[in-house]
Amino acid sequence: MFEDLLQRLGLTDRNAGACGTSWIHAPGDDWLVAVNPATAEPLGQVAATPADAYERVIEDAQAAFLAWRNVPAPRRGEVIRRLGQALRECKRDLGLLVTLETGKIRAEGEGEVQEMIDMCDFAVGLSRQLYGLTIASERPEHRMMEQWHPLGPVGIITAFNFPVAVWSWNAALAAVCGDTMVWKPSPITPLTAVAVQHIANRVAAECDCPGVFNLCVGGTDPGERMIHDRRLPLISATGSCRLGTRVGEVVGRRLGRSLLELGGNNAIIVTPSANLDLALRATLFAAVGTAGQRCTSVRRLIVHESVAGELVDRLVAAYRTLPIGNPWEDGVLVGPLIHENAVVTMMRAIERAKEQGGDLIQGGKRLDRPGFFVEPALVRARPDMPVVGEETFAPILYVLTYRTLDEALALHNAVEQGLTSAIFTESLREAERFLSAEGSDCGIANVNIGTSGAEIGGAFGGEKASGGGREAGSDAWKAYMRRQTCTINRSDSLPLAQGIRFDATAP
User: Fold this and answer.
1) Predicted confidence (pLDDT) per residue in 131-163, tens digit
2) Number of domains present in the structure of the chain
3) Does position 1 have pLDDT exceeding 90, yes or no?
4) Domain CATH number, residue 309
5) How does pLDDT run across 467-479, given as a tens digit for each residue?
6) Per residue in 81-126, pLDDT tens?
7) Considering the domain boundaries, does residue 498 fall inside one?
8) How large a percentage of the chain has pLDDT more than 90?
9) Active site residue 209
10) What is the per-residue pLDDT for 408?
11) Domain for residue 496, yes or no?
């Protein structure tokens, strides 16, 4: 059905999964099968990367780094500009492939590629802004300064739900900073990774910089090799909190750096003064967009008891009219979950919620059709229900009520994760308190917009079990570089800092 699309993106029935300066066709029987979650039918296969192929990829990334670090940053930015242009040219095709492999609707699939393009544009400008500081020295005729150098080959581990955008967050910044990279995509979405690698290879060939962009497709094996590998000074990993714990422990033991973007049990607070039209629309997208499979999806709706009845009634009515279907078809707003296990996990979570005293007020059933389709669920819940404190990667929204803002903030901050958050209010005091030190404990806090759909201009990431890393905007580029403080003495004397005297006489 989509053979022409795959062909245009350089994909075949069976694809190599390891690439350094060139594709590595490693023999073996370990193939990853990409499945269309809307039909449960295979899209194609990608070879997993064995140990010897992994070594070749790392060696290529290391060798390329030795040359790439000496390329002027604006010239590195030109390579990323060309990558962005190549992505523009295949936006519709690559966006559709994202839709086919993840189940995202077309608008979200193409939006993810647009995010890649935006990241490239951002990085191009950044390539002329890798600024250091001039620092006042306490010693006369001395100058201090801070400068930044490339770090080395960077390991990038990405998740299925944003199979290409998260790579671009890291790859575009790492490249202009002078790093090469090794990408280990989710084994659930290998085809999009191979398609992006083909695009990156064409750009690298045009710009004579082979080995900057490298790929290692596989299950847990390539990822385990990467996090143990001292040749990769930074591991940027996106995924579950469990994954982040593993990466943080292993990389920390070798004193490497880790940049972790993990899960979120995100909440929206709706106050008595809130514009309910806005709150309703924001909650809908945040709760059911990507079928609830975003780290930024809203899981908890904390509503003041005076407006809870009206808002819940309107949510129920909206949920009942949600168009669910094949995500590549016009008008569809909710696609499938990613695989069978995701459906099973959602159904178990709903049963646990019922057992703990929750009330399923809408949806929560599996649809009788091919693929992994479910009805998004609304559950009236209590804060003391253990399931409310967990992140179920599915469209389940727990509705809680509160009486005072103190109570709402306590409920909001009572979970292990701290990624993104939102409040809907017309009160300046309530908004400012939510944004203050005693308000949201998340890395992202919004007023009168939802929890999903962050812009690339702001640093993205969370606190607590959400990892603490920051990607994309602001000064996130510093994660991909090493800081160096330099002092230059232009005098004939040698004064020491802190007034220390050391008057030994040299022979």
Assistant:
1) 999 999 999 999 999 999 999 999 999 999 999
2) 2
3) no
4) 3.40.309.10
5) 999 999 889 999 9
6) 999 999 999 999 999 999 999 999 999 999 999 999 999 999 999 9
7) no
8) 96
9) no
10) 98
11) no
Query: In this structure, what token pair is assigned to residue 406?
Result: 């103190």
Which of 421, 442, 459 terminates a domain? The answer is 459
Strand partners for 298: 266
Q: 235: burial class by Cβ within 10 Å (0-12, 13-18, 19+)?
A: buried
Q: 496-500, long-range: CB within 8 Å, 24+ apart, which pairs?
A: 496/139, 497/138, 497/139
Residues in a beta bridge with 303:
270, 401
On whether both 228 and 292 belong to a single domain, the answer is no
271: left (phi over 0), alpha (psi -120 to 50) or beta: beta
329 and 427 co-located in one domain: yes
CA-CA distance, 201 to 464, in Å (whole number)?
37
Residue 505 covered by a domain? no
Q: Where are the beta strands (DSSP E) in 332-468?
A: 359-362, 377-380, 396-402, 417-418, 420-424, 444-447, 459-460, 463-464
Residue 151 identity: L
What CATH number is attached to the domain comprising 122? Answer: 3.40.605.10
The confidence score (pLDDT) of residue 454 equals 85
Region 436-448: what's the mean pLDDT? 98
The 10s digit of each residue's pLDDT in 211-270 is 999 999 999 999 999 999 999 999 999 999 999 999 999 999 999 999 999 999 999 999
Catalytic residue among 261, 375, 430, 471: 261
Q: What is the pLDDT of residue 356?
A: 98
Name the residue range of residue 344's domain: 266-459
Is 507 among the domain residues? no
Q: Which residues contact 102 (CB under 8 A, 6 or more apart)?
A: 37, 109, 160, 161, 163, 189, 192, 290, 338
Average confidence (pLDDT) over 382-394: 96
248 and 281, same domain (yes or no): no
Cα separation, 115 vs 196, whole angstroms: 14
Shared-domain flag, residues 226 and 318: no
Residues 67 and 161 both lie in one domain: yes
- Say how many CA atoms lie within 13 Å of 453 toward its Cβ: 15
Residue 182: CA atoms inside 13 Å, Cβ hemisphere, count?
34
Calculate the average pLDDT of the chain: 96
* 185 and 284 part of one domain: no
Tokens 């082979």, residue located: 210
In this structure, of 196-200, 320-324, 353-357, 473-477, the range with the lowest mean pLDDT score is 473-477
Catalytic site residue from 216, 295, 430, 471: 295
User: Is there a single domain that holds both residue 177 and residue 86?
Assistant: yes
Catalytic annotation on 430? Answer: no
User: Which one, of 273, 311, 310, 315, lies nearest residue 423 by Cα?
Assistant: 273
What one-character-per-residue DSSP string does 89-147 give? HTHHHHHHHHHHHH---HHHHHHHHHHHHHHHHHHHHHTT-----EE--SSTTEEEEEE
Query: Do 423 and 477 reside in the same domain of the chain?
Result: no
